[in-house]
C-alpha cells in the first residue's frame, strides 16, 4: 500500500483524481438520496406559498442576519416541544430557498412565532427591543420603519422563486407588487384579489400601524406573523402520533 | 514600483488588459444597476481596477526585468499576501470583538443599518476565515510550492491575479454585508456574482499549482502540497455546489438558492463543515507540514502516518456535515452516518496532531526558546483538542445539549484562535525574515508578547463559552419537580452576561496580540537588519533539508 502511494505521489494528476474521488463519495451518498426518497419530505396538501409581502419580509430577515441568532427548527426533544411547540417538519421549509433553520439561539427559536404576539408588539420590539423586553440584547431596527419597501423587483423575485421550484402561478407573479400593497392595506381595493390568490386565511392588516404607506416594517412583521403557519401539518402529525 | 517593473512587458500588457476589462464590467453594473445595491459594487470594482490600472500604465514601457530573476524564487506576491494577512487579521478581529461587546451592550452601535449585529457578524466571520485565513494560505502556498518543488513560479502574472482577485472577492463580500447583500447561507454569504468571480480566481489558482508541480525538480510531491491541493480542489467543489442559485436578474444583487428546506440544509452543512475541513484544516495542515519541520530542523516524524492521515481526512470529512442537524427534520439515517464518521475521523485527525508533536522530539529546547516554533506547537495541541471536542459534540446525545448554544461558538474559536490563527502566525513569523531577507523579526520580544496574548486570549475565550454553552443547554432542559420547564428563555439570556463579558475580554487580548504582530511586521520591513549573504540565500538554496522533503522511511 505504501509502495503504491510512493508511486502515486509522484503524479500530480493522479493525486488530483484521487482527492476528487475520495472527497466525492460522502456527499453523494448522503445528499443525493434526499432528492429521491419520498419519505424525506412529508406531504402537506394544504400548504400555501409566501405572499409577495411575506417573501419580501423574508428577504429583509436574511439581509439583517436574523438567522445568526434565531433558529427556525424545533428539534424532536421534549423540552423544545414544550417550549416552542410541535417539532419542525421538513415540509414546513419546502418553499424556503434557502432554508433558515439557523445554528445558534442567542435569542429563542421562532419557527412558530406567527400569531404569538400582536403586530404592535412586533413593531415596538423591532424599534427598540428593550422597550418591551428590558433585559433583551437584541439590536434595534429603526430603519425598517423609515424605509419604503422596494416593490419594483417583486415580480422578478416571484418569477425566480418559480424557477427554483416554488409553485407561484403566472397570475401571482404578474400581480406581485399589487398584492404586496394590498396585504398591508385592509381597506384598499386589492384585498379581494389577494385572498383569491393566496387563500382566505391570508392575514391582511396594516402591520406597521400606518395604512397607505408600505414600509419594510410592514413586510418583516407580515413574515414573522406567518412563521409556522403555512401549513398545520406539524400539529396534525404530532397529534396523530400521540393517539397511536 | 519595483513590483510592476519586475513583470515582463508582456505580463504588464496583459495585466492592463485584465484591469481594463474589469473596469468596464464595473462601469456596466454601476451604470445599469441603478436602484439596486449591485450598482455600488459595480462602482467599487471600477474604482479598484482603475486604481491598479494607472500605475501599470505608468510602467508599461519600463525595460524588461533582468534575466537574473530565473535564479531566484518569485516572492513578491507572497510578501504582499503576508501584509494583507495581517491587515485582514487586525480588521476582522476588531469587528469580531466589537460584535462580542454588542452581545454585552447592544446599544454600542451607530444606530445605522450597516453597524447592526446581524450585518457585522458575517463581516467578522468572512474577514477572519477568508480574509485572514485565505490570504495566509495563498501567501504561504506560493512560498511553499516553490521551495518544495525547487522551481520558480511558472509566470509572474497569474499569482497576482489569484492574490488580488481573491482579495477583491473578500472586499465584495464584506462590503456587501454592510449594504445588506447576502445569500444568508452561513459562511457562504456572498452573492452570485462574487461567487462566480471566485470560481474564476480559484481555477487560475489550481492551474498555477499544477503548472508549478509539472515543472518541479523533485521526484516526489511533498506532503504539504497534497494538503494545499486538497484545499484548492475540494473548496472548489463545495463552493460550486452550495452556491447554486438563480439570480433575480442580471442587474440584481439578489439570488434565490436552487435547493430548499431539508436538501438545502444538508448541502449547507456539508459545505459548512467541509469549509472547516478543507479550508481551515487541510490548507493549514499543508502550512504545518512545511513550516513546523523546517523551523524545528527535524524531518516529519512519520511518512506513513502522514499518508494515512491525509487520505483519512480527505475521505471521511465529507460525511460528517450532517452532525450539525441532529434531532432536526433531516432523516435519521443521515444523522447517524454523520455521527459515525465524526467519531472515526478522530483517528486521522489525531494522526496529524501526533505527527506534528512527535516531529518536535529532539527540538523541545527550541520550542522553549523560540516563540515562533511555540506558536506552531500550541497550534498542533489545539488542533488535537478541538478535533477531539468536535467528535465528542457530534455524538447525538451530547449534541442535544450543545447545539444552538455558545458551546459551539467556543468550539469553533478553540479551532480558529488556537489552531488556524496560531499556525498562521507561526508560519508568518518564520517566513517574514526569509521573504524580506532579514536576520530575524525586528523584535523577538514582541513575538513573545504576541504569543502570550494569543494563548491567554484563547484560554479566556474558550473557557468562558464552555461555561456559557453548558449552562445555556442545561437551563433550557431543566424541569421543576412539578414537571414544568424551570427557566424561561430570558433567564438564560440574563445568565450569559458575565460569560459574554469574559469572552469579549478574551477576544480583546487576542486582537491586541494581532496588533503587536502588525507592528512587528512593519518594524521588520522598515528597520530590521538585513541578513548576511549566506542567511539570505538559505531559503533559496537549501531552505529545506533533503530529509524534510523526502520520505523519512
From TrEMBL, chain A:
It is an enzyme of class 1 (oxidoreductase). The keyword Methyltransferase does not apply. Residues 52-228 form the Cytochrome c domain. One of its GO terms (molecular function) is metal ion binding. The gene is ccoO. Its EC number is 1.9.3.1. Keywords: Heme, Iron, Membrane, Metal-binding, Oxidoreductase, Transmembrane, Transmembrane helix. SUPFAM superfamilies: Cytochrome c. PROSITE patterns: CYTC (PS51007). The keyword Transcription regulation does not apply. The chain crosses the membrane at residues 12-35. InterPro entries: Cyt_c-like_dom, Cyt_c-like_dom_sf, Cyt_c_oxidase_monohaem-su/FixO. Gene3D superfamilies: 6.10.250.2250, Cytochrome c-like domain. This is Cytochrome-c oxidase, cbb3-type subunit II. It comes from Rhizobium straminoryzae. It comes from the Bacteria.
Automatic annotation (TrEMBL), chain B:
Gene3D superfamilies: Cytochrome c oxidase-like, subunit I domain. It is found in: Cell membrane. Pathway: Energy metabolism; oxidative phosphorylation. Its EC number is 7.1.1.9. CDD domains: cbb3_Oxidase_I. Pfam families: COX1. Binds 2 heme groups per subunit, denoted as high- and low-spin. This is cytochrome-c oxidase. It comes from Rhizobium straminoryzae.
